[in-house]
Amino acid sequence: MQRDIVKDRTFLARKSAPATVDDAAVITDLRDTLAAHHDDCVGMAGNMIGSLTRIIIVTMGEEDVVMVNPVIIKRSGMYLTKEGCLSLEDVTRAKRYENITVAWQDDSFRRHVTGYSGWVAQIIQHEVDHLDGILV
């Protein structure tokens, strides 16, 4: 089900709890909400739709990939950039890394450890920041 985008900074600043199999509806809602915003959005975190669960969805080419309980375990190539967000009005500066390695689970809760770089790495970092209550 498509959800409204949360803009309450107090809510967005809260850390998200680990997701479980009981959070399957959040995955569906993230898919539906991102699909409705594909013209102006490439990723979302659970808290952006009102759920404080560690689930994100990231557009990777033609596919939207759900990452459950993502943790960035390695970073390299720090740079500064500017980012926008559906939950926030302003474009702000953010510190990002060109290359990251992420431990995560898919929507069937199978574990993965995957390296990402460039634009996809930047999106994942932005969404993981959301899960940690960090607003850009």
How does this structure look, described?
Helix content is 23%, strand content 42%. The protein is α+β, with helices and mostly antiparallel strands and 136 residues long. The protein has one domain (9-131): Alpha-Beta Complex (Peptide Deformylase). Strand 4 (88-105) and strand 5 (111-117) form a beta hairpin. The radius of gyration is 14 Å and the shape is globular.
List keywords for this structure.
3 helices; single chain; alpha+beta; Peptide Deformylase; 136 residues; 5-stranded antiparallel beta sheet
Condensed summary:
By secondary structure, the protein is α+β, with helices and mostly antiparallel strands.
Number of H/I helices: 3
Number of DSSP-assigned strands:
5
CATH class placement: Alpha Beta
CATH fold descriptor: Peptide Deformylase
Considering the protein shown, what is the CATH homologous superfamily? Peptide deformylase
Average per-residue pLDDT, rounded, comes to 96
The overall number of domains is 1
- CATH architecture field: Alpha-Beta Complex
Give the terminus-to-terminus CA distance.
Answer: 27 Å
In terms of structural class, how would the helical and strand content be classed?
Answer: alpha+beta
Helical percentage: 10-25%
What gross morphology would you assign? Answer: globular
Low-confidence stretches: none
